[in-house]
């Protein structure tokens, strides 16, 4: 009999505790200034896919998932032995073309000397013909010889031009091959962390095939969703705070983006608002110098709370967002 009376008492106590907890949470929420919106969100970052420009066999991957990489750092290589053989052939073609140009230049010099001799001979016979010492037939032969020498010289000069173009074409093929070899050395374009290794040494990757994915740590932001009645008053550059889950600190930030299109809140983002309300996607960014200072602590995908000030007056931050890491600024520049 006593046991049957105890159960209702326990249930009443639990209901009272739950109701008291809800009342306290709701009171805390309602205690915030009306201009301050608090929403759940997550840390996001741009991702960069490192892919092969042309098909080839992956010869080396020099990083592991989780490694930090710097701009210009070599992170993978694709086998370039065939391209190096092509470059050697094209380099030989350059040497052959340059030799052909030297020969063409020498031919031009020879033809120039022959034309000069023919012109001198024509001038001498012209003087002799005027005095009657030589015949008009000999003069005509010298004139024809001079004209032929001119034509031959012109053709030799054209050969020089053609040889120059051959040298340029051969050098272009060498440069093209060197560019293809350089493309097979995969480098990180950004400062970031290796997120995925998508291929292993020895595998053949297709043209455009992904090898690695990098999280770009120069493009880190916190994304949350704000109801339309709050978003309408939200300005770009408005002050904000980011409080990651499990961290008793608040990161100063600013509103960097407000989506121009409203949408229903995605299922993967839990908010305290009702699901059927239209929301605006908002991004908060802190300073890059602050990210660099704590870059080992940056975790994309981490959840947390975003505090956004929607008013025009100076923000009135609650005590929950006043805690800072030692040496961090109170606010960041817009």
TrEMBL record:
One Pfam family here: BSH_RND
Matching InterPro entries: MdtA-like_BSH
Domain Multidrug resistance protein MdtA-like barrel-sandwich hybrid intervals: 47-215
Keywords for the protein's UniProt record, in alphabetical order: Membrane, Transmembrane, Transmembrane helix
Lipid metabolism is among the record's keywords: no
Superkingdom of source: Bacteria
Name assigned to this protein: HlyD family efflux transporter periplasmic adaptor subunit
Organism in which the protein naturally occurs: Rhizobium oryzicola
